[in-house]
Design goal:
TATA-Binding Protein, binds zinc ion, globular, alpha/beta, 2 domains
Length: 338
Amino acid sequence: MPSLERYSRQIVLWRRGEEDQIRLLKSSVAIIGCGALGSCIAELLTRAGVGRIKLIDRDVVDLTNLQRQVLFDEYDAEKLLPKAIAAANKLRAVNSEVEILPIVEDVNPSNVLELIKDVDLVIDATDNLETRFLINDACHKLGKPWIHGAVLRTYGMVMNIIPGETPCLRCLIPNPPPPGSLPTCETAGIMNTIVMIVSSIQATEALKFLMGYDIVKNELIYIDAWNLRLSRLKVRRREKCPLCSEGRYEYLEGRRAYAQALCGRNAVQILPSREIKLNLEELAQRLSRIGKASYNGYILSFDDGRYRLILFPDGRAIIKGTSDVKVAKSVYTRYVGG
Ligand SMILES: [Zn+2]
């Protein structure tokens, strides 16, 4: 066990002192989404000494992220680094004793159980309801606690969910509205201060849970940063909850979407129909004859003057410049293949 000196300012605070800190050092979390909430939470948990942190994110750093995603800088955006990789680079410099596991993947029904099965706690730092309902299903299936968090404009919310004990996300929202019908950070805006508040609450609950202290249960914590209001709203288990009463894993059993518009982002994600392994370096050379192509060791970026293609080694792609799935598919087929 390494020296606990670096944690001395918090050890004096924990009720069981070093024993609690050792518990933290032996604990593990998966943070799903490494954007605004994810990067703040990851930094707090890394500094506090959570032993193993999985960072899962499907996207690359973009200039518009820097206003609120505190782990990233202009270099990361310029180099189009995957967020999980850029975050891991920073976090390892902060605390080399923590095991940081960056995973550049889309979380979907085919991989979610594998991704979270070996951690003590899952933290929701995603930006869409679809993935949250998938986490809700997966955590219920594995009996894994998770912390829901969301931010928009100047408000946000947090809810701790312990399968079998507290209400689940579908007790709160039984039938999510169709994708695209909700406001997003891109369409409605986001103030960077609410991100810090919500991520701090999520991280506080996470640390308490990992050390074995009581956490907030059966309540939705709602914060309005602009008007400085915090409310704690009672949430009850829904008698006809599709998940915790009826046991239907509608999201986990759903098919992963082959092509999916990323809401409010003017971008579409394409997943390959089968398992493939691309040689991005070679492809970048080929594509550079017809447009601006580059490979940074992680992803290929290609700009044909109209659309921008971000391609990952497993064949997954994000097509920027359109929200039309058909257009995105044809761009993908044209440059990557069918
Ligand atoms: Zn439920």
